[in-house]
Write a structure and sequence with these properties.
Number of strands of chain A: 11
Radius of gyration of chain A: 22 Å
Number of domains of chain B: 2
CATH architecture of the largest domain in chain A: 3-Layer(aba) Sandwich
Radius of gyration of chain B: 18 Å
Number of domains of chain A: 3
Number of strands of chain B: 4
Distance between the termini of chain A: 53 Å
CATH superfamily of the largest domain in chain A: NADH-ubiquinone oxidoreductase 51kDa subunit
Number of helices of chain B: 7
Distance between the termini of chain B: 47 Å
Oligomer: heterodimer
Order of helices and strands of chain B: HHHHEHHEEEH
CATH architecture of the largest domain in chain B: 3-Layer(aba) Sandwich
Strand content of chain A: 5-15%
Structural class of chain A: alpha/beta
Number of helices of chain A: 17
Shape of chain A: globular
């Protein structure tokens, strides 16, 4: 296979200036010209044909989502851009927004043209101040150059205004209906679906919510065509009707116990081993990996034996052998052999207990129970039956068992179920030995 | 009609008025207005929340609900300096708990508290998206990576 040439990070890797002028000199906004020469329906069709799947975590086909909008709606239709990147270990959107904001903005303008939106909201988490400033600067430049505002690039009737909306620190704002609630100035309590946001979203109008990286991909699909996009990645498995294929480039974040934590761009379908050894510089201190988080902590764990698993939408999932929840955000975290899985699980449970929005009882209480039980085990007071209780709680919360509104609880239960299934012996011996690890004071949410 | 400004005559309420006016007193501007209020006052006193509720014509329960829902808003006064330890998984497996223990020991307070002299607030955060430089600590809004118990204690020395 020929050496892969980065697409999304092309300008960032050569340290190109984030200014509009430099972006244009590198062929920027060529894709927008091409899109404006097409009809909105044709732009949508190009994205559908490219089989681009959402990069935010769920992997829903992006173009198909756009087709869910009601036909001939009088408007307004909104585009919401999800830059509330909160999944632990994920930092690719931050890089995209901070260092190449026009690439993202171009994707937003193209998407708005395709879905006929006249207002786009960019929801950025508060912690990303530098990325917010870079995006605002890009938006100002775009207004001055006629890329935003009325009759964009002379195209009659195509108006677009972009507003940045800052978050205020809540993981749940990454859930699309939670994000919409937060945009409306409320607590980010996810809404019951249906109606899906494409039918009734922000301010009760049709709304499309897309991730930053997805929109950056849209820019390149319009520039170089769907066939080019499909030439990268893993094709769909014909024997598996559930697999829609994993095409295109993806930003993989590598962190944890590796020598060189970084963010690299590779075609979908790279194995965890290649990612860690070739791009992450191997596991640190010459140790071995014990567990690998494949895509943000809510996805579960891969064991050292599963290190040759391909990281794409088809190879990770509830129905695959590894049983992970999915590809998620493709944020790979390596945990070395010297780290206790009890501590790791405690950290994960504490995160979800803190971030559960409190709307659905099974999630609000279940995440708290799981934390208390893991904390008890960690303090050396675990009981043999605790593991079964943890598994049972993990099974009972979430969309899949049908007890909650959004997927946060699935993501909270999954790593617990996976840790106990894959590392049961370690938990059992920990409980039997009555071992204690250093415990932190539990930090209460204020 | 814009409500009359705050009876205390505090100039900061005037600035808050301008912010609310710029957002046309829209309900969806609540989070942005609270950001501004926290910037101005350092924390969200009940009096400020009531003022915002009146300005935006929202029930106080709604304003209080939003202010307590989002982790960034603080209803208690903060110290002169802040130190936020990231507890994301990548930072945690690289020893964030040891950093926090060192800080708590040095400052003599627990996470979520402020020193009695009001100099320093110690907080923890969920993942701040700085996993590439884990473990990370944010000192007064500036993210510092690859921290050790020694480097954080060095940093805090002048602040206590």
């Amino acid at each position: 296979m020929a050496e892969f040439e980065p697409v999304l990070l092309r300008r960032i890797l050569k340290n190109a200036s984030p200014s509009l002028e430099a972006y244009r000199a590198d062929g920027g906004y060529r894709a927008l010209d091409k899109a404006l020469a097409m009809s909105p329906a044709d732009v949508t069709k190009a994205v559908v044909d490219s089989k681009l799947r959402g990069r935010g975590g769920a992997g829903f086909p992006c173009g198909v989502k756009w087709t869910f909008l009601p036909k001939d709606h009088p408007g307004p239709i909104y585009l919401c851009v999800n830059a509330d990147e909160s999944e632990p270990c994920t930092f690719n959107n931050r890089i995209l927004m901070h260092q190449d904001p026009h690439q993202v903005l171009e994707g937003m303008i193209i998407a708005s043209y395709a879905i006929r939106a006249q207002v786009a909201y960019l929801y950025i988490r508060y912690e990303y101040g530098d990325a917010t400033r870079a995006m605002q600067q890009a938006i100002d430049e775009a207004y001055a150059a006629g890329l935003l505002g009325k009759n964009i690039l002379g195209k009659q009737g195509f108006d677009l205004d972009v507003y940045i909306h800052r978050g205020a620190g809540a993981y749940i704002c990454g859930e699309e209906t939670g994000l919409i609630e937060s945009l409306e100035g409320k607590r980010a309590w996810p809404r019951i679906k249906p109606p899906f946001p494409a039918v009734e979203g922000a301010f009760r109008k049709p709304t499309i919510v897309n991730n930053i990286e997805t929109l950056a991909c849209v820019t390149h699909i319009l520039d170089r065509g769907p066939e080019w996009f499909k030439s990268m990645g893993t094709p769909a498995d014909p024997a598996n009707p559930r697999d829609a294929g994993s095409y295109g480039p993806k930003l993989y974040c590598i962190s944890g116990h590796v020598n060189k934590p970084c963010c690299v761009e590779l075609p979908l379908g790279v194995t965890a081993r290649e990612l860690i050894d070739k791009h992450g510089g191997g596991v640190w201190k010459g140790r071995k990996a014990k567990a690998i988080v494949p895509g943000g902590i809510s996805m579960g764990f891969l064991t050292a034996d599963e290190i040759d698993t391909k990281l794409d939408f088809g190879s990770l999932g509830p129905f695959t052998k590894n049983g992970c929840l999915g590809l998620g955000t493709a944020a790979v975290t390596v945990i070395d052999e010297e780290t206790s899985m009890v501590d790791v699980l405690y950290n994960i449970c504490r995160f979800f207990e803190h971030e559960s929005c409190g709307q659905c009882t099974p999630c609000r209480e279940g995440t708290g129970w799981m934390l208390k039980i893991v904390d008890r085990i960690r303090k050396g007071l675990g009981r043999a039956e605790d593991l079964n209780i943890l598994e049972e709680v993990g099974h009972q919360i979430g969309i899949m068992p049908g007890t909650t509104i959004c997927g946060l609880a699935d993501g909270a239960g999954w790593p617990v179920k996976q840790a106990i299934r894959k590392f049961r012996a370690e938990f059992e011996s920990y409980i039997k030995s009555g071992k204690k690890t250093h415990t932190l004071q539990l930090v209460a949410a204020h | 009609m814009a409500p009359a400004s705050h009876p205390s005559g505090d100039k900061r309420f005037k600035i808050l008025d301008v912010t609310m006016k710029r957002h046309l007193y829209q309900h969806d501007a609540l989070i942005e207005v609270l950001h501004k209020a926290q910037e101005l006052f350092g924390f969200l006193e009940l009096d400020v929340l009531l003022y915002v509720a009146r300005g935006l014509k929202l029930p106080p329960s709604r304003v209080y609900g939003v202010a307590t829902f989002y982790h960034l808003f603080s209803l208690k006064p903060q110290g002169e300096h802040t130190c936020v330890v990231c507890m994301g998984t990548a930072c945690f497996v690289k020893g964030a708990d040891r950093l926090l223990a060192a800080i708590e020991q040095q400052a003599g307070i627990k996470a979520g508290q402020t020193t009695p002299n009001g100099k320093l607030s110690v907080m923890t955060a969920r993942c701040i998206g700085a996993c590439g430089i884990a473990p990370a600590v944010v000192f007064d809004g500036v993210t510092a990576g690859q921290q050790t118990p020694e480097t954080v204690q060095q940093q805090l020395k002048g602040w206590l």
